[in-house]
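Annex B.
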Amino acid sequence: MTLRQLFIASLSRFQDLKNARRLSFGKVVLYLLCLSLVMAIPITTQIWQAFQNLQADTQEIAAKIPDFTIQDGKLTTADATEGFIYQTDSIIFTFDPEGKRNANDIAKDQLGNFLSVGLLPDKVVISMPATNLSTQLLGSNQLELKYSQGLTSLDGAHIRAYLGESRIPWWILALSILISIYPAFINLLMTVLISAFGGVIMIGFRRVSLSYFETLKILIFSATLPVILSVIVSLLVPSFDTSVFIILASLFIFSQAIKDLPKRPLPNQPK
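DUF1189 domain-containing protein: predicted structure tokens.
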């Protein structure tokens, strides 16, 4: 049977899944990657939602930014504008033309998943959550950019216009999928391998003649419907334990798939 035929069978005709044991392992791995892409949907959705929330927060902050210009490498306001600190769900923003705060203060604002941004008298400070990626790319989780080093044209009107009209680029969605598919693949692979041990025990009791790799192939296709159902439930209930559900449901479908396979003869029983 082809991959397409086995996919259709995995949704209703479970007994046909026994034919998956004859597929090459390369095709089975390809199918597992496709299932991982489905498994990545909840993670991708969460990442995309986080970017949308970040966009909404930046637009909310943009509306609060007063007029200012950069003169001689210093932030200058049109009148006696006072500094302020503004917090949204994802960003803590500091506007400080008077120099009452410093980069360390901005870093202290950064809590959990908050992004802390400060427009100080002589530089922009961006403090991000401490991760291995930010440390490897930047050397730390804090980025400091002096106005005199390429930001002399920065001003309040341009920031408000840019952030107010900006849209999330299409490549962010592609990046979200790429970020999501790796943990989804690892999680699904471990779930299927655990299921395979249960499958080996099951074929032992039923005396079915299947190797471990044949068992694994059938179980990967048996996991199709459980994966789809678990993704749907996860979108509605993020705390849902998908791994346990996939293991139990896959083993049930696996038990239906191997029903008609020939059994090994009992000891001392004529073949």
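Residues 132-138 have pLDDT under 50 and may be disordered. The two ends are 29 Å apart (CA to CA). Further annotation is deferred to the next reporting cycle.
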